[in-house]
Amino acid sequence: MDSVKSQSYEVHINELAKAALNQHVANRTYSKIFLLVDENTKKYCLPVLKEIFDGPVDSILEIQSGEENKHIQTCLQIWEDLSNLDGDRKSLLINLGGGVLTDMGGFVASTFKRGIDFINIPTTLLAMVDASIGGKTGVDLGSLKNQIGVINQPQMVLIFPEFLKTLDPRQIKSGYAEMLKHGLIQDEVYWQDLIKKSNFTDASCIQRSIAIKNEVVLQDPTEQGLRKILNFGHTLGHAIESYCLENHDRKTLLHGEAIAIGMILEGYLSHELRGLSKLSLDEIKKSFLRFFDKVDFTDEDIDSILQLLKYDKKNSHGNVNFVLLQAIGEAVIDIEVPEELFQKAFAYYKE
């Protein structure tokens, strides 16, 4: 299967990934090679990586998994570990994990000694098709998603679909939400194909999602315009995710679960403001609710969620800007939404 070429790195899959990793390390004179894992990837994925990677690993650094640990305190721990283990500017950090770990590992590498090389080896479907691609790195500020970070590209991203065998179905579905998003914003044929598939974890689907995101990022690496379309569903979705994260009496939602709700809500806004057909809107809602249980939100919940919109990273000059759909496969950016439509969007979701 062909690799996906970005501006300064490539995304390799399966055997090409194995060859690329070993060749890269053999051709570089890294002073130290560090491997970042969490307790899950250490147990389930590290043994597989040891069979793939021929090179030396000087030290394995371990952090706790989960969005609740994606904060600057964890970064401090990793920075201190790197420093205590004599890491320098010629070191390499290999990030073996899901989106939380690759986001944080990339940020740590980008800032340690003003920047060291890093390689992402995503182990969840969400990280394979989205989080590890495109160079966004960072951490949360309290419960507010990805408020601190930089855009910096890895040396390469390596995809081994066999890692998906270690995941429970809920984690797989979380990644599926981002794949569906890629179809909604750029490729109606891909969307139609995905909603009919029973197996969306095959390498060809993963490659197509990576290619869609990569095509967008190549045209707008620093998110000045087009790249914003990748945030469809994320304005309300991130607010919902943050709200559930900070309220311990509510079930914490995985990223994809929150974004699935966000895409239904923002689909409704698209229908009202950009002419997305009612047929397409209902197809979006029906498709997501086939895979994701509906979440009950009270009026008080909705008010609190809407308060969090002011922290969205796409905001400019005090305005909350949305990515909306004109049609499936056609996204538009920087759309302001009248406040009265938010309640109507939640009402549509609840129907």
UniProtKB/TrEMBL annotation:
Any Pfam family hit: DHQS_C
Keywords annotated in UniProt: Cobalt, Lyase, Metal-binding, NAD, Nucleotide-binding, Zinc
UniProt domain 3-dehydroquinate synthase N-terminal: residue ranges: 61-173
Residue span, 3-dehydroquinate synthase C-terminal domain: 175-315
A GO term, aspect molecular function: 3-dehydroquinate synthase activity
UniProt keyword Metal-binding present: yes
GO CC, alphabetical: cytoplasm
Cofactors that this protein relies on: Co(2+); Zn(2+); NAD(+)
Gene Ontology biological process: aromatic amino acid family biosynthetic process; chorismate biosynthetic process
Family annotation (InterPro entries): Dehydroquinate_synthase (IPR050071), DHQ_synth_AroB (IPR016037), DHQ_synth_fam (IPR030963), DHQS/DOIS_N (IPR030960), DHQS_C (IPR056179)
EC identifiers of the protein: 4.2.3.4
Coiled-coil segments: none
SUPFAM superfamilies: Dehydroquinate synthase-like (SSF56796)
Lineage: superkingdom: Bacteria
Function per UniProt: Catalyzes the conversion of 3-deoxy-D-arabino-heptulosonate 7-phosphate (DAHP) to dehydroquinate (DHQ).
Identification of the protein by name: 3-dehydroquinate synthase
